[in-house]
Write a structure and sequence with these properties.
46 residues; 1 helix
Length: 46
Amino acid sequence: MIVHSHISHDFLTYHTTVIENEYQLIACIIDFFIVCLSETALFESD
């Protein structure tokens, strides 16, 4: 039981880390698109 709970804890910790990394990746992609759109809008306004 102790070994099983230890494995489950590691799995949950790893899974949570993966989810956090995915959210950070999505946030970076969104920021990238916002920068590209804002730059494109500036070029179009000129």
